[in-house]
Amino acid sequence: MTQVHFISRYLVIPAVLTLLVLLALSIETKPLVPPNQDPTYEYLARTRQLLSTTVQLTQTDNPERLIVLTANDLTAAANFALLKKKFEGHANCTIRKNRLKLIATIRLPTNLTPLFLNFRVIADDAEPHAVIKQVKLGRLAMPRVVVKWLLNGFLNFTPLFRYSQVGHQLVKEIRIVDGQLQVAVNWNRDALSQAKGLITDLADKERLLVYNDKLAETINQSQLKRFIRLGSLMQQLFALAKSRSEGNGDPIAENRALILVLSAYVNGKNIVQWLPLNHQPVIPSRREVLLNRRTDTAQHFMASAALAMSGHSTLANMIGLAKEMNDTHSGSGFSFTDLAADHAGTLFGKTAVRSEEKARRVQNILSQSADESLFMPNIKDLPENLSPADFAQRFKDIQSPEFNALKQQIEERILACSLYQP
């Protein structure tokens, strides 16, 4: 045996043994958080509020906003995240004066004895930011220095680096005060400009300008005064994307720019700040865009497509489902048609940029036809405007067999569209 092989074996055996010990310490046979009998209504409604609620503190040029989160808010968000990731698990957060404790359990997919990953995170208040005092995975306690090292490495050496840099400028203070987690955000112009720049990381400004001008040309030439179909706009824009992708073009980048521009227009957003400053963009006339003969369906579809295309498919689905549960309680009612549009848009956005081959296939199909059934199924028969009582009577909650059966039917319809076929 050579000296190199001897040394390699000598080093590998301790490493394997160490890994086995760490696994043994991390995995437990009892859950830290027992199953919850209060499932999804509170998680969904409360998470919806977290997405939009801030408290404005000042009216200066650089206004601060204070985001205040209770233990129930954090419990709801953590459980909702587990639910959307399809993990079998539960979480619970408590805040006692100036200490926050988050515990969570995830059951491992084993058929023999039940095995669980149990997490514990304890954070205490400090200025200007609360500090993590303890992290435990099962019986394995991680020292603070190790946690800090892992967190810094994750933020600095992954695609999250740009987001963390912007976050350092936006987040002024994180405190645990009087039983609440308080996040003070400083909306200064430099940080906001960088945040907007994250969007153009996905599609350079010149490409955005090209598709904005093509969209304006298509809209302004239309004889229709009020409404225009999403399928018609897609056909024109994807024909341009296909021609620009020929040869050594980048079909993924073209599709990203196209979807960002179209999503902004459909949802009434101004994208002038994303475009090159040295070029005066053509402003498209305002039209209501229809999908399945409805404007709200087009808006849900394109907003979810843009989020999913940016790598946030889970967030797209979470926002859509949370919004519907919130609407159930706020008057407009739960709509499976909106939910279907969210899911179809999410799949559309992911498909359009999944790979160069997929991107070209999307261009080939949509450039040849304005038929919306290529990417969106018929959903006219789905229930909508369900009050809390109606929803509870028919579906109980979103974990019930009745709800999952209809959700599965919706997903099968979407997957049957030509664009999503293998």
Describe the protein in words.
With 422 residues, the chain is an alpha+beta fold. It has 2 domains: 29-186, no CATH class; 203-420, no CATH class. The model is unreliable at 50-62, 159-163, 192-202 and 312-330 (pLDDT under 50). The strands form 3 sheets. Strands 1, 4, 5, 6, 7 and 8 form a 6-stranded antiparallel β-sheet that branches. It has helices at residues 3-26, 40-50, 71-84, 144-156, 161-170, 189-202, 205-221, 230-245, 251-266, 295-309, 313-330, 336-353, 356-366, 388-395, 401-415, and strands at residues 27-28, 55-56, 64-69, 89-96, 99-107, 116-124, 131-137, 140-142, 171-177, 180-186, 227-229, 288-290. Strand 2 (55-56) and strand 3 (64-69) form a beta hairpin.
Provide the number of structural domains. 2
User: How can the largest sheet be summarized?
Assistant: 6 strands, antiparallel
Number of helices: 15
The count of β-strands is 12
Outline, from the CA principal axes?
A: globular
- Compressed to H and E, one letter per element, the order equals HEHEEHEEEEEHHEEHHEHHEHHHHHH
Estimate percent helicity.
Answer: 40-55%
The class by helix and strand makeup works out as alpha+beta
- Outline the low-pLDDT stretches: 50-62, 159-163, 192-202, 312-330
> How far is it from the N-terminal to the C-terminal residue, by CA?
51 Å
Strand content: 15-25%
Overall mean pLDDT stands at 76
Report the radius of gyration as a whole number of Å: 25 Å
